[in-house]
Amino acid sequence: MTRDPRYDVLFEPVKIGPVTAPNRFYQVPHCTGMGYRYPKSEARLRGIKAEGGWGVVSTQETEIHPTSDITPANEARLWDDRDIPALRAVTDAVHEHGSIAAVQLVHNGLHTANRYSRAIPLAPSNTVIDSDDPVQARAMDKADIKAFRRWHVEAALRAKRAGFDIVYAYAGHDMTLLHHFLLARHNHRSDEYGGSLENRMRLFREVIEDTKEAVGDTCAVAVRMAVDELLGKEGMQYDAEAHDVIEALAELPDLWDVNLSGWSNDSQTSRFSNEGFQEHYTSFVKSVTTKPVVGVGRYTSPDTMVRLINKGQLDFIGAARPSIADPFLPKKIENGRIEDIRECIGCNICTAGDNTCVPMRCTQNPTIGEEWRRDWHPEIITKLDKPKPYLIVGGGPAGLEAARALTQRGAEVVLADKADVWGGRVTAESNLPGLNAWGRVRDWRVWQLQQVANAQMYLNSHLSAQDIMDYAIPNVVIATGAKWRKNGQGRVHRTPLPFLNNDHVFTPDDLMIKGVNVISSNGPVIIYDDDRFYMASVLAELVVSAGHEVVFVTPAPIVAPWSENTLEQTRIQTRLIELGVEIMPMKHLAGMSEGRLSVSCAYSGQVQEMACGSLITVTSRTPEDKLCAELTVLRSDWADAGIKSVKRIGDCIAPGIIAAAVQSGHLYAQEAGFDAVPEPKREDYGRI
Ligand code: ADP
Ligand code: SF4
Questions:
Q1: Which of 273, 274, 324, 368 gets mutated to test ligand 2 (max ligand atoms within 8 A of its CB)?
Q2: Model confidence at 536: pLDDT above 50
């Protein structure tokens, strides 16, 4: 198919200083959790972005020196020449597809403890660092500033030798030395690098000039700058100092890459923001510079992209997450296949990979992070040789993805679900407050299955073990999901709590299936959260919206601690406080009687009683594996019934996040047809 002419503007080449981007799709710098430790994986991932049509493909932040060592995170490095080959592999992979490669040089300043290098962190002024490490940064003297400028130049020269076309000076996310010098709250200097805005931006200006002088003959010099920190007057604002900085430096760099700071503001989830959420802050930039401008905002709609270009708001459509969820987004627009775009759902499971220092994963794209290790490609999957049919029981994320990928491999697939809608838990959860966009996990897969002739899909089909035996379909896949426990079993209470066996206790499934009105409360609704991710807080919002008083009890010290990894924790806790939810951290369940709940202090064991109309337990889930067990009992009859294999996937093996269910379904489909399942490759560690 050919592209719709209304999208032509997105495919115009754009000059950036001495280089030219082949189109307006710009994969802005984003972490992958791979970096210098998994360089082959990193290179393959970036190469696939270029293959998918991203005209500019950037690295993640790339440390310029051991004083900017962000261990244990796996970012890129250009500490010395030995780091060049790993990044040369990235630029080669990007250039192979006609795209250009950008490197985001970084000095992390007071953002990092230098845990590996043990160098003393550097900052504009003496200060504590960002993390809880008992470490302080020292104020840089003039010699340090000179040295830092030299390191940046040396790293830029190495980047040029590694083949990069665009070299960044990075003043963003409250994570970089250049940003720290700009920000009055970090910069308390009284010399020419502190005080007035002109002085605070001196180092930024010098580093841009140095970089241009060092590599500007053949490389474009880009800046990444945060235009607002969402801190009000406490931080830099788009209509105050940030505006003045960009105006003052307007024509100095070859490109402005502008966004919000910190990272949790820049990468807001769909629970808290919509597509284009940064426009309000970044739209002024084009009016103060003639240089090309790139901005982000979880853009997945080509019409929105065209609107932004045509109204002169951006020159490039910047994307991190949309390019992770669908590395082939540009190619799909170019080939007139916009319905095939796998839209990012804004869940930030990708950021969680980086935050837990492992290669990234994505709810929508199970191949991300596995491009080199497992040789997975987001669009291409080997056809099965004379495939036998598959019966998949359960059309949640695991079953849908297994069905989709198996049909892509050429297999005949029958997909059955007892429900009257597809999606399983995704459908249930996407009806909860703020999670609507998660329905895209279902929608994309159902759409793909509806386009092919080798998928038969049946709703309202509750299958028993005998039904499955009678169908005589050789490969049976059980994707029947999991159910929330009511008995309190979880991380703290490892065995069921008998006192919860009463009619006033509910589970998330009760609320998702029967609705919030299942709770008829004559007192506060208590939510006990030992799951520690999003579910309990979302239910708290739901229950408050139905007019109930809510108390949030958790053994954790904060609400939803794992959501720190998805950059949401602060927003979640703030929202609950704003909704009037009382939060009781560090509490275990101790007992329940008519209208009363007892909780005990996690430290002292001291018990306290409180009024409780209803209790919602959000602790853990139990796999729905009954069907599989029943089939296993009939194992000796499988051959006669024409059944070759029965396997479980997704939550019915071990309940987890939606991304894990999708990955499980995809893995099953990828491994189908192999007698010996291929082992993932391993990278060599370190530089030898
Ligand atoms: P996962 O996350 O592993 O995909 P889900 O819980 O989202 O799991 O989906 C499981 C799906 O399986 C649900 O849509 C449910 O209706 C369906 N299901 C469970 N048991 C059966 C069964 N016996 N026959 C048909 N469908 C079933
Ligand atoms: Fe988007 Fe979620 Fe994938 Fe990240 S993990 S790219 S937020 S769908």
A1: 324
A2: yes
